[in-house]
Amino acid sequence: MYDYLIVGAGITGCVLAEQLAHLGRKIIIVERRNHVGGNAYDEYDQYGILVHRYGPHIFRTNSKQIWEYLSRFTEWHLYQHQVRAYVDGITVPFPVNLDTVNLLFNFQLTSEEMRLYLEQVRQKAGIHEIKNARDMAISMVGEELYEKFFKYYTQKQWGLWPEELEPEVTARIPVRFNRDPRYFTERYQGIPRFGYTFMLQRMLDHANIHLLLKTDFKQIIEMIRFKRMIYTGPIDAFFDSVYGALPYRSLVFEYQTLPVEYYQEAATVNYPNDYDFTRISEFKHLTGQIHPWTTIAREYPTSSGEPYYPIPTAANQELYIRYKNEADKLDSVHFVGRLAQYRYFSMDQVIHQAFLCLNEILK
Q1: Which segments of 225-350 are extended strands (E)?
Q2: How many CB atoms are located within 10 Å of the residue 102 CB?
Q3: Which domain does 166 fall in, by range?
Q4: Which of 91, 203, 210, 219 has its CA 20 to 30 A from that of 127?
């Protein structure tokens, strides 16, 4: 008899399994893939280079509690993420900052002059009401920078034009009036020194945790005795998509290993207007690994495959609410995580949701 069946061995499932096992509960965690870690899974490729198999994952948080919690299971490579964008034949910092504007337009603006410049282009655009992701982006940077950085990248990434998406898609990307090149500004930032997989495997290294990989929980649920379930998979799949499938955006990666120390100047270079891929990631920038060769990954968004990103539209949110109403009727099942809550959570937000779920369980 297990106290909890946890469906999914991603970050959410691993954190809850570790916490409950530490409290003396017996856990069985069931994962349909052949590895733990969910989309944060990483491994050494055939050349000995540590790569993130589902795209670059940079951990960042302002929560000292979450940082110290993970630090029980890993050392850190302290890393501050930088992104460049290939626009008009040159690479410039992204999110938009003072250097971005000066390089693109051959300006020599100060921070205050940049504020005045953006205020003028925003007023010229005439966005008075924020209805969608297009309105949000233009209200921040004006029409021309929107066209260069947001319009076509968003269409490639989501398969929808910005005016078809909720404002949150572009609202999370800041504009900076200084030369700060960092993509994130949270107080704690880094990459697990030996990888996310190693860190999460350490979480699950407990006598009270039984892990089943390559297993669909629906195929074995009648064979397992348990008291309660924690479900971290797609909420629509739990209910056999009875109201219709919730759409997710997926990704396909094209890996290439090259006999050079570095391929590009930053870990990530976005291609908002050129090519079919959205970005190229180079993993050694992230991990700090020393190796004479380098591995890169070109990233192609697609509508089919592993679910990565819930698609933020009003219609999709309405469909999710129908499933959530069904989930709320189930006293013995807890739905938690990005897929179960149909929300684009960062990794620290996922852990926060796991802690909230734990508090609810222990009431």
Answers
A1: 226-231, 248-258, 268-270, 279-282, 294-302, 309-310, 333-335
A2: 17
A3: 97-171
A4: 91
Average pLDDT (109-128) is 94
363 pLDDT more than 90: no
Picking from 142, 171, 200, the residue at the C-terminal end of a domain is 171
pLDDT band at 131 (very low <50, low <70, confident <90, very high): very high
152: tokens are 């076509």
Q: What's the rounded Cα separation, in Å, for the pair 55 and 308?
A: 10
Percent of the chain with pLDDT over 90: 97
Whole-angstrom Cα distance, residue 174 to residue 128?
Answer: 19
- Dump pLDDT digits (tens) for 156-195: 999 999 999 999 999 999 999 999 999 999 999 999 999 9
On whether both 73 and 101 belong to a single domain, the answer is no
Whether residue 152 sits in one domain with residue 19: no
- Mean per-residue pLDDT over the chain, rounded: 96
Q: How many structural domains does the chain have?
A: 2
Same domain, 235 and 333: yes
Do both 125 and 198 map to the same domain?
Answer: no
CA distance 4 to 20: 9
How confident is residue 116, by pLDDT bands cut at 50, 70 and 90?
A: very high
